[in-house]
Amino acid sequence: MIRASSTNWCAAADVPAFACLVAGYSPLDREVTDMPKRHGHRVVDWSTGPTVLRWRSWWGVFRRTVTEFLDDNLSDWAAALTYYSVLSIFPGLVVLTAILGALGPSATQSLIDTIQQMGPSSGTALLVDSLRQLQGASQLSGPLAVIGLATALWTASGYIGAFMRAANAIYDTEEGRPIWKTVPVQLGLTALMVVLLALCAIGVVVTGQVAERVGQWLGIGSAAVLVWDIAKWPVLAVLVSLAFALLYWAAPNAQQPGFRWLSPGSVLAVLLWIAASAGFAVYVANFGSYNKVYGSLGGVAVFLIWLWLSNIAVLLGAEFDAELARGRRIEQGFPPDEEPFLPPRDTRAMSEDNESGDAARAAADQPAADRSR
């Protein structure tokens, strides 16, 4: 067993306390115990070294985020995720329309107005047309909700499964969890994503007349409704960041230092997604000629490119979190080019052909200084 000394690494590394808190770790000393074992490999004890980075290490994190994004072919993974996004969106709209039908027709119209502001008009036209067609079927909201929810969960789980494979590529590891573990994780993550996105959609439509109706039902004054109209966008950004943080934590087969409600990568992904959506909307409105090139399929092309850019933002956030984890391991004394740089959560499903890599994975549990003895 490896025993680490109890040290206040935030102080030792001359890192301000607020940086420790932002990174999701306590700047205080923690009791250090022997590192436990799980399925033949050691579980990472994050108290064996600094849990936050020195300021000079951040440049390496940003540089490796870009280079690893290219090396991991994440633009190709974004294209695969775009395919699964298309399969997931329209069944999800069935569920969303059924839920919004309970709030009245103005709720769906509020969502349509918001979607039109989110991205290029030619790209969001597909979503808007689908919502308007489904709006007329509100009398079947009960059956639609049940059938649509089951379909959406099944199809959207394909997106989560693809993201889990992409996350393993990001963390330079294999999928070692057996199928009886990956399937529940996949479906559970899908259900959580659907719930969080439904909350975001409800938050978007609770405005104007809908907000007044909800305010009267809850017995709150008009001032509270006005405050919500202003505060809802930061709240929605936090909800989306939470969804990304859940995805980044649970998807890869890599041990991480515990769940953080908001990870740096999830916040970065939200900011990149907002910037990419706004920039692409301006480009399409002023410089794009997709309708001339693709004809009647111009709107489809714009919509797919927008989804691809959105998935690139999500994957960049995951890569950033991974490189932060690598940076912390480097400061603990691990080689910067060692792969995998985090021990896997499970190895039972790994191919027997890769048994020769067990020594490397075991070595990943021990700092370079200890191995040189």
UniProtKB/TrEMBL annotation:
Keyword annotations: Cell membrane, Membrane, Transmembrane, Transmembrane helix
Coarse class of the protein's main subcellular location: membrane
Q: Which GO terms describe its cellular component?
A: plasma membrane
Chain segments annotated as transmembrane: 81-103, 144-166, 187-210, 230-249, 261-285, 297-318
Metal-binding: is it a keyword of this entry? no
The record ties this protein, via PANTHER family, to: INNER MEMBRANE PROTEIN YHJD, UPF0761 MEMBRANE PROTEIN YIHY
Indicate what this protein is called per its UniProt record: Ribonuclease
User: Could you tell me which species this protein originates from?
Assistant: Nocardia brasiliensis (strain ATCC 700358 / HUJEG-1)
